[in-house]
Specification:
two-stranded parallel ribbon, 12 helices
Length: 397
């Protein structure tokens, strides 16, 4: 990472390393020391840690015995978690992201919220209650963190998948607006400190009544995020026939959500650099120039190692055009605070659970079954991205 030249590295703290069951009273010292060692090594090499607190790693006991985020007790368990790590790393970490892609709870009950669908006949209503508990937990994390170190910058994170109208029908354009509101309803609460009129109407029309406590809303109002992080991979297409809030994310796998004007990867994800500029512009207007952090952006591709070299010009082209559009957004006046490729290092693809859908600037010699030497080989994109970092994005050739 130091050779690549990156000046920041986003990773997460596994809740289970600190509180293995989630409901312990005292944190696990070995887990805390693990991250001390990691952060010390990063800082020694001039790399700022950007830490996601909860990234789809809810302790299993909190799912099986407590029912996941539907149980309000999880707010207290989360408070204990953040108290421990904020105090421990108060002088090592400045930038915190409370929840990874918090709005994915709309479409993924288990991964994001720890809900087992079979246990909830009215799972959609349960999702909204669980998300309310996460919003309260986010506000409490900000309150706890600022009391420990007022210099902390604490944000949260959405996935962003802006939509284009399928046709020029007004109804389809309205569906795109509804899509924007749906994706942003949680960040609306975290930025403005209250539920939007759009969501109050949705709750009323769908007979959704949140169970809240009197202090919830003053807590949300007092403790707003310092920045909004988001992931950006692709855009989609919507029509008035699609429900806006609780659709399963199609990730452009279906022909009905594909844009005929965009290229498509082997895994069905459409490539839309201009869409990133559109998202940045939309968020800057919606959130009145709140700092924005692009926490994930990358291309999964079937890389080939030949003669100890990976010619991944397609990845260079992908990042070049996305970074170019970020530059345009900055000229437009958007306050972009950072850009994190997904991922600089190699990881297993979360969406398809395979090695051959490869990300990052470093090739790992390992196949889908785990066989290989595990040696690391710098791809062509590694050397290209070095120059990008050295020039702070001015040199994209």
């Amino acid at each position: 990472m130091k050779e690549l030249g990156i000046n920041s590295f986003r990773t997460s703290i596994a809740w289970t390393r600190i509180f293995p069951s989630g409901d312990e009273l005292r944190p696990n010292e070995e887990g805390l020391q693990f991250y001390d060692d990691l952060f010390d090594e990063l800082l020694k090499n001039g790399i700022e840690p950007i830490i996601t607190i909860s990234h789809y790693e809810l302790p299993l006991k909190l799912v099986l015995e407590y029912g996941g985020w539907f149980n309000r007790k999880l707010i207290t368990f989360f408070e204990n978690f953040v108290q421990a790590i904020f105090e421990r790393y108060r002088d090592k970490v400045t930038y915190w992201i409370t929840f990874n892609q918090i709005n994915s709870g709309l479409t993924d009950a288990y991964l994001s919220l720890g809900l087992i669908k079979e246990e909830h006949p009215q799972i959609e209503k349960v999702k909204f209650q669980s998300l309310h508990h996460q919003l309260v937990a986010n506000a409490r994390a900000i309150e706890i963190g600022k009391a420990i170190n007022s210099a902390f910058q604490i944000g949260s994170m959405n996935y962003e998948m802006t939509a284009y109208p399928k046709t020029s029908r007004p109804e389809d354009f309205l569906a795109c607006l509804a899509n924007d509101d749906a994706q942003a309803y949680l960040s609306d609460v975290m930025v403005f400190g209250e539920y939007s009129t759009y969501m109050k109407r949705y709750f009323s029309e769908n007979n959704i009544q949140l169970e809240t406590q009197p202090e919830d809303f003053s807590l949300l109002k007092r403790n707003k995020i310092d920045f909004l992080a988001f992931s950006y991979y692709l855009t989609t297409v919507r029509s008035s026939e699609m429900r806006s809030l609780l659709d399963k994310i199609a990730w452009n796998m279906g022909e009905d959500t594909r844009n005929p004007y965009l290229k498509t990867s082997e895994w069905g994800w459409q490539i839309d650099p201009i869409g990133l500029r559109i998202v940045l512009r939309k968020l800057a207007v919606r959130y009145r120039n709140l700092p924005l952090f692009i926490a994930e952006n990358g291309l999964g591709y079937r890389d080939t190692l030949e003669n100890e070299c990976v010619q991944d010009d397609y990845r260079i082209a992908y990042h070049r055009e996305h970074i170019r559009q970020i530059g345009e957004a900055i000229l437009d006046g958007v306050p972009v605070m950072g850009y994190q490729p997904w991922s600089g290092l190699y990881i297993i693809s979360a969406s398809t659970s395979e090695m051959e859908k490869r990300y990052g600037f470093i090739y790992i010699d390992q196949d889908n079954l785990g066989y290989g030497s595990k040696r690391r080989v710098k791809k062509n994109s590694f050397f290209w991205y070095q120059k990008v970092i050295e020039s702070n994005g001015d040199n994209l050739e």
